[in-house]
Amino acid sequence: MKRTIAFGGLVATAGLLAAGLAVPAQAASDVASDALATNGIAAYSVAAYWKANNAANLIGATPYNVETKAVAKHLSKGGPAPDSKPGIVPAIGDEKKTAAKSKNVNLPKTTGKVFFTGADNKPHWCSATSVQAAYHNLVATAGHCVYDTESNKATLDNWVFIPGYYQGKTPWGIYVGKTAYTHYDYDVYEDGDRDYAFVTVYNGLSFLHDGVVRPYRDNPGGWKEVSAETFAKFPMWFKAVQSGYWCHEGNKYYVWAFVDAGRLGDNVGGQGLAYNQKIGQPVFVFGYPSGSHPDGNYAYTGKTLKWSYGKTFAATAPAIKGEELQGVKSSFTGEGALGSSWLLKYNNGRRLGYLNGVTIGVSDTDGNDRFDTSISPYFDGETYGVYGAAKNNWSGSIAVPFESPALH
């Protein structure tokens, strides 16, 4: 189904909102889920796609710039309202602690980039973050960094999360997406108020292989034998000799065995989640902005993690049926910043806080040709419901495509 997110008519108002009294509830029909890599072979192939040929696809990926600019022309008294009592989910390792203020800004290990191929079949990326989950395997980002807004396909292809990514390096491994969760209203009605997604990921993979073909006889320790039937299930590009991830000796097929890097949250932690919070609280925004301001100034390269800081304010964007958005003053440019994490009560010592938003667009609100505002859906009880549908699902390991039925 085609999803079109065309920002326009951004409306922003400052003010505080009181919390409601209802208990957060979410009907199962309000949550949409879509498979990304449905089995071990598919997931293994996705990871190999990004690391083949010395990570050429990772290095060559460009920031996703689909419909990120929000036009601000007038003010109005719209904005988000809590649908129940405020609530929080503590971060991984922070369950019995409280946040404290610090003057230093230590960047979170949880933040990284999600990579995928778009409707143009070219590699792109957005910002994202690891969040708390029962199996330490959950990533949060903007909905249109997961769901395909350009074509009729449900989700974007070859979806992976890489925390701490830098110029082809994957310091904590690469995490292939398994299942994406979003709100039904975003999946079907393209509702900007629900432009967020939570994605379960498989265990990470560490790469000892650089995509260079090395026959089994020259390096038997790195290869695992699979049947001809299993090998036939890999995609065509993988079975090309130059892919470097398979070889055969006689009638035997061998596939390179990656190293299991473990669960995402065990390696980098996971932010907590906050919902139905009062507008007007300060948040840190962490992401990888790239591209230029309208005046042509390139303030960010997208290569390194950046942050901004400010108080949230209520916002609406009628063009996308966005009546419950929040904004924050930020100079982040739109390309690459999509999916940036908004962290409430961020503790610099533990580098943890509560995810309270994700960037879905940027705006030049004063007309000086410089972006000065980022916007996000307001996280309410329905957001928590989508999160709740995603947080208890196991993913598992994809390091070696054995003949196990679980991997087929």
TrEMBL record:
This is Trypsin-like serine protease. Gene3D superfamilies: Trypsin-like serine proteases (2.40.10.10). Residues 1-27 form the signal peptide. Keywords: Signal. The keyword Signal applies. SUPFAM superfamilies: Trypsin-like serine proteases. It comes from Microbispora oryzae.
